[in-house]
Design a protein that fits this description.
14 strands; 365 residues; alpha/beta; six-stranded mixed beta sheet
Length: 365
């Protein structure tokens, strides 16, 4: 049913002829056959364990799901998934997929979404060395775990571009950043953003805050409210579902402030969320751009490797140079001055060329 050889070895028929008082009888027995109805053919090629923020974040998880949906359409695969609510659930779900106890065939690929699944992935990959696995956003040593592909991104590069736009479009010379967690991964976003803002607006003021959760848009909105009240007019959110609260805050605060309050989206195109009605988005929007982290492309690419039988494990990198990182422009919702776009694209070219190096960790005190 799938792109790997999942055929079962044909059973051996044993014919026994017995002679008894009432005559002869024949028994046909297949020693390799499971009990009737105990196992069924696996209808899925891929299994996905999403991050705890869950689907509906319109960002990270939803972007990964889009990549899997694209694979369904273009590669003719099927997938199943689960949405854990706690990191303690990760290993159990991964192990269950690796064991595939309900099916007579394994999954061709198991994908873990999020850095905090690394320990669970390594534990399961070690116990099931023939099971292909992938993880988004975390490095796992390919020498020790050759059956795992790490999907990695240069988030700081794209963050520098949206920071550059913030530096050029701010009216108050104060920009903000709201992260989901105070961890190295999210600090890559913060570092690039502040660098980019200073690149186009040297000496600009910045404020950094962390929600401490991936799925608390209420607290995200509270943090953004405080920043806007203090004079910040552009806030970049890299916080999963919590970042939706920052966009809600930008829309609410724009009514009561003398300056326009902007948000910047992350991972997926989010400019439409800044419109009055995101279901029917029309200009204007208060999300000036989004830092595009093409997790959809990453998920699709690793599935495609398995489909094409070219899976090798190891590392896959996504950056400005290969289109895995970028920034959003949507002129239907917001027209940015050509001079601003030119300056950002000049910075983009310099980063790709290596003449501008963006820091990937907090560099200020």
């Amino acid at each position: 049913m799938s792109f790997q050889n999942k055929g079962l070895i044909a059973g051996i028929l044993i014919v026994i002829i017995g002679i008894g008082a009432v005559g002869a009888y024949i028994i046909i027995y297949d020693p390799f056959a499971p009990p009737p109805d105990e196992f069924v053919e696996n209808p899925y090629d891929v299994a996905i364990v999403f991050a705890t923020g869950g689907l509906g974040d319109k960002s990270f998880n939803d972007g990964c799901k889009q990549g899997a949906d694209d694979a369904v359409t273009e590669l003719s695969i099927n997938y199943t998934y689960v949405e854990p609510t706690s990191i303690t659930e990760y290993e159990g779900y991964l192990r269950s997929y690796a064991e595939h106890t309900d099916y007579d065939e394994p999954y061709d690929l198991i994908i873990s979404i999020g850095f905090d699944q690394a320990d669970a992935v390594m534990a399961v990959a070690e116990d099931y060395p023939n099971q292909y696995m992938a993880i988004v956003d975390m490095y796992i040593d390919p020498a020790t775990y050759p059956n795992v592909t790490s999907l990695l991104f240069n988030e700081h590069e794209g963050s520098a571009l949206v920071g550059a736009m913030a530096g050029l479009m701010t009216d108050t010379n104060m920009v903000g950043f709201v992260g989901g967690m105070d961890i190295p991964l999210i600090n890559k976003f913060a570092a690039g953003y502040v660098f980019g803002a200073n690149y186009t607006n040297e000496g600009i003021n910045h404020t950094i805050a962390y929600v401490g959760h991936w799925a608390d848009p209420g607290l995200g909105q509270t943090l953004a409210n405080g920043m806007y009240a203090a004079g910040t007019d552009v806030i970049f959110a890299a916080a999963g579902r919590s970042g939706l609260g920052v966009i809600a805050s930008a829309k609410a605060n724009n009514i009561s402030h003398a300056y326009r309050t902007w948000a910047i989206g992350v991972d997926s195109p989010q400019m439409y969320l800044g419109c009055v009605d995101p279901e029917y988005p029309v200009a204007p929007t208060l999300v000036m751009t989004s830092m595009l982290k093409r997790v959809d492309v990453a998920v699709y690419n690793v599935i495609e490797q398995v489909v094409d039988d070219t899976y090798t494990g190891g590392l896959m990198f996504f950056s400005l140079s290969n289109g895995g990182i970028d920034y959003e422009i949507n002129e239907d919702l917001l027209v940015i001055a050509p001079a601003i776009i030119t300056e950002i694209n000049t910075l983009k070219a310099a980063i790709i060329a290596g003449t501008v190096v963006v820091p990937d960790e907090i560099y200020w005190t």
